[in-house]
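To close the section, here is one more complete example, presented without commentary so you can practise reading it yourself. The ligand is zinc ion.
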Amino acid sequence: MSEAKHPGQCRCGGVRIEASGAPLVTMACHCTGCQRMTGGAFSLSSFYPEDRFAVTSGETVRGGLKSGPDHRFCPSCMSWMFTRAEQIEGFVNVRSTMFDDAARHAPFVEMFMSEAIPGASSGASHSYEAFPQDHEFPQLIASYAQWDGRVKA
Ligand SMILES: [Zn+2]
Ligand SMILES: [Zn+2]
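Output:
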């Protein structure tokens, strides 16, 4: 079975990305760091194994903080595109809003509600005050795969 391709791009189109198939889970993060980096009330992400994600044209630069997670941005339009981190080695957290079919990547889990802007709602069905515990992720991923609102491929 060949998996559906999910192409995407930054605001200016200088960097293009592509993911294959469905993400493992989709998330909204309401932390103040994501608020500042997106300029919005929360960030949206689609969690993919590294081997199902590629930058297909252009190059990214590091943004955010100089230590910790490696947040990648378009060097021209400065869109925040995806993140890699030691804690999620082998996976990449793609900013769902970069995908051409972003509307299909509805968030399933929302986190850092303790820092959320009042009234800002992601619509996610699983809500956490901070980050979910490590042991909760396998269950969240299993639940996402059964969810009607998931990315189907
Ligand atoms: Zn750009
Ligand atoms: Zn965040």
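Once you have examined the tokens, check your reading against these statements. The chain has a mean pLDDT of 96. The chain is about 10% helix and 30% strand.
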